[in-house]
């Protein structure tokens, strides 16, 4: 018999989130049931809720894809996890398992489309519902172990923000001697600084102003520059092996490409709503590359969590109750968070004030 659990969902695009219930399926042989402890708030949750990515696929829609919890029940054929394990779920909960990318262990680039943890069409045709809820059921192959040395609340944002910055840094082999720039010091950017520094890189933050300079240096950045100052672009020309753009707003791509050294790369991890443009001559100069990246694979997500546990990396976060979600959404849009909101899932059962 399926189970209904307390949650917060958005009834229609642009409306505030409200208390609701969401149905969780019966366990299949390879499923696990997770009691959620914490769930982070990502900018993508807000994009979906506000309709920036199109109409809502279901009403209400329950966002949330930075989930940490405890396994409380397992299907009959589960082998990867046990009851009592502390685990995490990130952006996806299924893929076709058959295409070339899935067979290569890159499920996030499933050629038939991976299934998002919320708002996605699962293989049985149902629409998935996310982690702004008390519990979730998921296939064991898309659930990762969260090391016990990581604080579970501040580890929750690693399941999206952490893997989204770790994946390109690892793929482009950042290490000692690499000169890395992180564009934006927000939820993604602050973890980009921490992880790149832990990999041994020389790290520079490029932000609109110097308002967060003290924070950036505290987080591990070696240098901090304001992109609102035109001299930043002339002074840092041809400097970086890798620039990771974490902001969701449109930027002058050509200006940032001018900062990339020979054979270097500018990578877009943020998700701007508007299309970006680039002058091909910005690429021809210095044999530069302009690339995009999504979150990482399940294998890579586990690798990231283990790396963060080894190096003591977690998100700087602010713990909130479920009744504060709408306020948190507004504060994220106003850049008023240092640097990730995390919801205490025990409060989903508490009536809103």
What does this protein look like?
This protein is an alpha/beta fold and 353 residues long. It has two domains: 3-159 and 316-349, Alpha-Beta Complex (Quinone Oxidoreductase, Chain A, domain 1), CATH 3.90.180.10; 161-292, 3-Layer(aba) Sandwich (Rossmann fold), CATH 3.40.50. 24% of the residues lie in helices and 26% in strands. It is globular and about 60 Å long.
Brief overview, please?
The protein is of the alpha/beta class and 353 residues long.
Keywords:
17 strands; Quinone Oxidoreductase, Chain A, domain 1; alpha/beta; globular; 353 residues
Work out the radius of gyration: 20 Å
Strand content: 25-35%
In this structure, how is the largest beta sheet organized? 7 strands, mixed
The name CATH uses for the topology of the largest domain is Quinone Oxidoreductase, Chain A, domain 1
Domain count: 2
- Let me know the number of strands: 17
The CATH homologous superfamily of the largest domain corresponds to Medium-chain alcohol dehydrogenases, catalytic domain
Continuous helix count: 11
Mean pLDDT metric: 95
User: What is the C-level CATH assignment of the largest domain?
Assistant: Alpha Beta
The helix fraction, in percent, is: 10-25%
Reconstruct the topology from this structure.
Elements: E1 3-9, E2 18-24, E3 31-40, H1 43-50, E4 67-74, E5 86-89, E6 92-94, H2 100-103, E7 115-116, E8 135-139, E9 144-145, H3 152-155, H4 161-171, E10 179-183, H5 187-198, E11 202-207, H6 213-219, E12 223-226, H7 230-235, E13 240-245, H8 253-257, E14 260-268, H9 280-284, E15 289-292, H10 298-311, E16 317-320, H11 325-333, E17 340-344
Parallel strand pairs: 10-11, 10-13, 11-12, 13-14, 14-15, 16-17
Antiparallel strand pairs: 1-2, 3-4, 3-8, 3-17, 4-5, 5-9, 6-7
